[in-house]
Every structure is written in structure tokens, then in C-alpha cells.
Design a protein that fits this description.
With 123 residues, the protein is an alpha+beta fold. It has three helices and three strands; from the N terminus they run αααβββ.
Length: 123
């Protein structure tokens, strides 16, 4: 009777266990990819904010000095300046951060920031 029971066993439980395990691995990879994209978005925002603040401090000199300072701070935070405009004493900065959430899959996060002195005449 034991020989018959062994012959009836086809290993289906092993295949089901493997399938469930692969589903968990795929869900984990998807969660990691979403998490990496969210981190990149936050990193782009931080880089834009800090770069705009640093560049606005030099906006009184000229646009080149302000944008160079902003680009230095943005690069230190893992970003790249895609646009830098000085409007009066305000600095408007657009930053891009590239992230690779999964091998071979690249995503780009963009953020913009504006910094400058408070305009009391407009308030």
C-alpha cells in the first residue's frame, strides 16, 4: 500500500510552493521599485530646495555665479540642474535625479524650487 501512495505523489505541492514563492519575490521587487522612485522624487525636491537657497544667496552678483553655486549644491545631493533662471533676486531652479530601481530600468524624477528675498510690497 505504501508503494501505491508513493506512485500517486506527483510533486504538485512543490510546484505550488515554488509558484507562491515567485509571487512573493515579484511583489517584493515591485515594492522596491516603487520605493526607489519615491526616494528619487524626495531627493530631487531636496536638491532643488537646497540649490535654490544657495543660488539665491549669490543672485545679487549675477546669474552665472548664482547658477554655479546652485549646481554645486545640487550635484552634492545627487542631482543635475536642467534649468536655472534668475528673476530679479529670485532664483528658479529645475533639477533632475536619475534612479535605477531595477537593473536596466531607469526612471527620472524632476523637481523645481524658487528662492529669494521676501517681497513685502506684494503682501
Amino acid at each position: 500500500m505504501t508503494a501505491r501512495r508513493l506512485a500517486d505523489d506527483r510533486g504538485a505541492a512543490s510546484l505550488w510552493l515554488l509558484a507562491v514563492g515567485l509571487v512573493f519575490v515579484a511583489a517584493g521587487l515591485a515594492g522596491a521599485a516603487v520605493g526607489a522612485a519615491r526616494v528619487a522624487r524626495h531627493q530631487a525636491r531636496v536638491a532643488a530646495d537646497l540649490g535654490a537657497l544657495a543660488g539665491a544667496a549669490r543672485a545679487i552678483e549675477d546669474q552665472q555665479a548664482a547658477c554655479e553655486r546652485a549646481a554645486h549644491i545640487v550635484a552634492a545631493n545627487g542631482g543635475r540642474v536642467t534649468d536655472c533662471v534668475v528673476d530679479g533676486l529670485d532664483l528658479i531652479l529645475t533639477v533632475t535625479v536619475t534612479v535605477e530601481p531595477l537593473p536596466g530600468l531607469f526612471r527620472v524624477a524632476n523637481a523645481s524650487a524658487r528662492a529669494g528675498p521676501i517681497n513685502t510690497a506684494a503682501a
